[in-house]
Amino acid sequence: MTDAQDTAADSTLRTHGGTPPDDAGSSVPGAPVPLLEPREGIPPVIADEAALAAAVAAFAAGSGPVAVDAERASGYRYGQRAYLVQLRREGAGSALIDPVACPDLSALGEALSGVEWVLHAATQDLPCLREIGMTPTRLFDTELAGRLAGFPRVGLGAMVEGVLGYVLEKGHSAVDWSTRPLPEPWLRYAALDVELLVDLRDALEKELERQGKLEWALQEFDAIAAAPPAEPRKDPWRRTSGMHKVRRRRQLGVVRELWQTRDRIAQRRDVSPGKVLSDAAIVEAALALPANVHALAALNGFGHRMGRRQLEQWQAAVDRAKALTESQLPQPGQQVTGPPPPRAWADKDPVAAARLSAARAGVTALAERLTMPQENLIAPDSVRRLCWEPPAVADDTSVAGALAGYGARPWQVDLVTPVLVAALASAGA
């Protein structure tokens, strides 16, 4: 970045204010400036213990928040591990770390303990960072900040352009980051992703403070930092795309067996499951229940460029499912905890359906007044649970207690409780 660009960025940060932009770039006067190079150039990739130790010392000695980002290889590799970690901090500059060569970054995580980490869409990166020993105790999520501030587009590129007036090159976001060595253009892109992240954080903090929402955002960030790792999803095979076509239990058994076989193969080969066998092919086989390899090969997703051995392993999975007893077959639907799907409320409990309609209308109106998405104002699931089983006396105390029990933050409870109490009363709760 040139001195002139530095001056422009500082000016942008000083002058940013007013209402959120209607579209990216409208809050910054003049044409957006392409951001082509990191200000200190592309840093060398850290891929050995000595270089990592030097980086740990530099970032520990730095000042202020630290910008953190991670690149995964979604769609190429099995799982969601990090294949590049990018950081930037005042006094330390930028760093690109290869977590394949340096799989334990706990020393860096410890050096940054107590420091505020600035991430964009933090919940996407925290699981893979946690795997390599990096877990923040404090954070600022620029994507969530943008949502709370009412920005209509909250991707990193849109936010940097709309708030700071710079255009980030986003052409490498979906590449295979497990590639080694990483090409220079990819490394430039990765370094630029953290180049202005702290600047963006500072501007958004000012905007949230201007709107009276900063305390709300801080409560949200604290909740993200304190959240435990997500529990493994139960019956993940049920999320196979196209499952709505599968009705019979025997067919469900085929989906489960094919999905689990594919998952074992993908994990062993370290490739994305979709590269082993598509969801569409799994559903096709489940619906057809092929009798043999010849019949399987005639189905979409199995015939082209698939060898006899591969076909036999898939047919064996189908045959295993076909041999299951009735008691071993999966049930048609997952066991649901909590209220049924809202579309069924009118038939199951018309009074509850009326409560939900009134509550949704109230939450929508409040979210519009606050210029933020409804789901950030209050989790839709919390509203559904409250409306399905409201307190015996739906007053401020009982509704606030119920929302807090569902995990709502204090700011959400304070804002939404009066709206929901009124909605429940109007619907006769």
TrEMBL record:
Record field: compositional bias (Polar residues): 1-14
PROSITE patterns, A to Z: HRDC (PS50967)
Residue ranges occupied by any HRDC domain in the UniProt entry: 248-328
InterPro entries: 3'-5'_exonuclease_dom (IPR002562), Exo_C (IPR041605), HRDC-like_sf (IPR010997), HRDC_dom (IPR002121), HRDC_dom_sf (IPR044876), RNase_D-like (IPR051086), RNaseH-like_sf (IPR012337), RNaseH_sf (IPR036397)
Species of the source: Streptomyces pyxinicus
Alphabetized PANTHER family for the sequence: RIBONUCLEASE D
Signal peptide (UniProt feature, chain positions): none
Region (Disordered): 1-36
Residues spanning the membrane: none
Source domain of life: Bacteria
Stated name of the protein: Ribonuclease D
